[in-house]
Design brief:
The protein has ten helices and ten strands. With 307 residues, the protein is α/β, with parallel strands linked by helices. It folds into two domains: 108 residues, Rossmann fold; 164 residues, Histidine kinase-like ATPase, C-terminal domain (Heat Shock Protein 90, 2-Layer Sandwich), CATH 3.30.565.10. The strands form two sheets. Strands 2-1-3-4-5 form a five-stranded parallel beta sheet, sandwiched between helices. The protein has a five-stranded antiparallel beta sheet with strand order 6-7-8-10-9, covered by helices on one side. α2 runs parallel beside α3, α6 packs antiparallel against α7 and α7 packs antiparallel against α10.
Length: 307
């Protein structure tokens, strides 16, 4: 079985020893350690190392964690590696700075082994989901750019991923759009139709049993006929996606921004990241069971004016 290569970056030898001890017994991982940001950068530049995850100390002399993240984001090969930021500070400003640099997962020192492993598995699972979406995305034809209006309905998490990778090709920047569309559809399935709460998902992610619970709830008779509907409409200057589930809604106002208090949870950042990376705007209607996402047709993320 191929092992997952993880890079541990910390200028404190004791902290690296603790990390190595926490991973002891996790047979699926291979670990590589670096005692500075510069040493980590040299390892990342070596094409022989295919790192799948980085645990990164924020505060280091010389090249610190934020500086290393910014370098990685300028390198196409490194920019998609999930990074877990380790920090002794939890001020909203510092967390927001890390999130903007690309650290979407956080651990506050000191932390327990189970908290570390839960975040590690969550980050790897999210990265694999994004990779799978990207692979599906490029299987579809480019003629969807001519689509003006359409209606779709899905029931399962798997169908959400398939529809997201399909409809993203009707958007100006498919690679940016696919993650956000997938996130909103999955939210409609799991939190809307299946009634999974934020706290329940956090616990299931901690226990690595989220997929099993989603499958169980999907198979329940009361959920069999529930659908999430997506409406696509292209206008002169924008594309509007309207996603409606059959749930009771949720306090959506709390999730449009990444709350620093939730930055350390294994879930809860998807809507805010979608708003930041995939859409021009996201609004919710009613109790929150209808999401309306807008994509500008003059998308500047890819640096090209769209037709």
């Amino acid at each position: 079985m191929t092992k997952t290569l993880v890079l541990l970056v910390d200028d404190e030898a004791l902290n690296l020893e603790i990390l190595l001890e926490y991973f002891d017994g996790e047979e699926t991982f291979t670990l590589q350690a670096a005692e500075s940001g510069e040493a980590a950068w040299q390892l990342l530049q070596n094409p022989e190392y295919d790192f799948k995850l980085i645990l990164l100390d924020r505060m280091m002399p010389g090249l610190d964690g934020i500086g290393l993240l910014k370098r990685m984001k300028l390198d196409a090969r490194l920019s998609t590696i999930p990074v877990i930021m380790q920090t002794a500070a939890n001020s909203p400003e510092q967390i927001r700075e890390g999130l903007e640099a690309g650290a979407y997962y956080y651990l506050t020192k000191p932390y327990r082994r189970d908290s570390l492993l839960a975040i590690v598995h969550a980050a790897l699972s999210d990265a694999e989901a994004r990779s799978s979406l990207s692979r599906q995305l490029h299987q579809h034809i480019n003629s969807l750019q001519f689509l003006d209006q359409a209606e779709f309905s899905i029931r399962t998490i798997e169908e959400a991923a398939q529809l997201a990778s399909f409809i993203a090709h009707a958007c100006p920047n498919p690679d940016a759009a696919v993650m956000g569309i997938s996130e909103l559809l999955i939210n409609g399935v799991e939190h809307g139709n299946l009634g999974l709460t934020y706290a329940e998902k956090s616990r299931l992610k901690q226990d690595d049993s989220w997929h099993e619970e989603i499958k169980r709830r999907t198979a329940l008779p009361e959920n069999f006929g529930k659908e999430v509907r997506l409406s696509y409409r292209r206008q002169a200057d924008s594309i509007t996606l309207r996603i409606c589930d059959q749930g009771n809604g949720f306090p959506w106002q709390n999730y449009l921004e990444i709350d620093p208090l939730r930055a350390f949870d294994p879930n809860g950042r998807g809507i805010a990241l979608s708003r930041m990376l995939s859409f021009s705007n996201i609004t919710y209607e009613g109790s929150g069971n209808v999401a309306v996402a807008t994509i500008s047709r003059s998308d500047t993320r890819d640096g090209e004016q769209q037709p």
